[in-house]
Design a protein that fits this description.
By secondary structure, the protein is of the alpha+beta class. About 30% of the residues lie in helices and about 35% in strands.
Length: about 250
């Protein structure tokens, strides 16, 4: 016991604070807010500057989420869903590969005329008939993404989704050999969570969400689906393989 205490005293103050903060985080629930920095620094026996360095480490690990002007919150402990941007896969496919369970909430399926924005995304005339599928995907009970897919009725009807719909329009389209899907043109940006998305995804209003707007193309360059997806940071790790330019 004496040796352990001596070893603890020999540890750098920053390392002691990091270990102590790790225990605090482990004792808290997802979404719970940490104490204010001044009181937390006093509790750990370090300066606020040292505390910020330690907290930055946990933010980078995805264990904490900072919201400017509000505070710091405990992030999800679900393993991040990892995927390469070179290959298009559904959340359900990625989760099943990792042995994780997905669920669908806030599911809305409707056939209606396309809005001007949707028609442009599909490269079709305004008012064309489309199937619109919106839903929230949860992994191990935690909401991770809010998805909206718009598909011309010529490619997919509501009745084809069935009662066992798992949330992936992509997987259903991939099972239609006649479509021969080949590419997805995707724009990636960051958006602030509106009141609607904050409520549906269980995140603070104004927090950053990863937004992807995509057009799914068939072999004959026709847009089969136009989608808008919002992902909760910390749940996803996207990577891309890039070739080295040789000039």
């Amino acid at each position: 016991m004496t040796t352990n205490r001596a070893a603890l005293r020999m540890k750098p103050r920053r390392q002691q604070a990091e270990e102590a903060l790790a225990k605090i985080i482990a004792s808290m629930k997802t979404g719970e807010q940490l104490p204010p920095e001044p009181s937390l620094a006093r509790q750990l026996g370090v300066s606020r500057a040292t505390l910020r360095e330690v907290m930055r480490t946990f933010v980078e690990r995805g264990m904490l989420v900072r919201r400017h002007g509000v505070g710091t919150f405990v992030s999800s402990r679900i393993p991040a869903l990892e995927a390469g941007l070179e290959v298009l896969e559904s959340i359900d496919t990625i989760a099943r590969r990792m042995g994780l369970k997905t669920e669908v909430a806030h599911l809305e399926i409707v056939e209606r005329p396309a809005t001007p924005t949707e028609a442009r995304g599909l490269d079709r005339p305004e008012g064309c008939d489309v199937l619109v599928v919106t839903r929230v995907i949860s992994v191990e009970g935690e909401p991770v993404a809010d998805l909206r897919d718009v598909v011309p009725l010529a490619y997919l009807r509501a009745r084809e989704l069935g009662d066992g719909f798992r949330g992936s329009v992509l997987d259903i389209l991939l099972n239609k050999p006649a479509l021969l899907l080949v590419t997805s043109k995707t724009q990636i940006s960051v958006a602030k969570a509106t009141e609607k998305f904050a409520r549906r995804l269980g995140v603070p209003r104004g927090s950053a969400l990863l937004k992807m707007t995509a057009q799914l193309y068939s072999y004959d360059d026709k847009v089969v689906a136009f989608s808008t997806s919002y992902f909760v940071p910390g749940h996803f790790q996207f990577h891309v393989m890039r070739k080295v330019s040789r000039r």
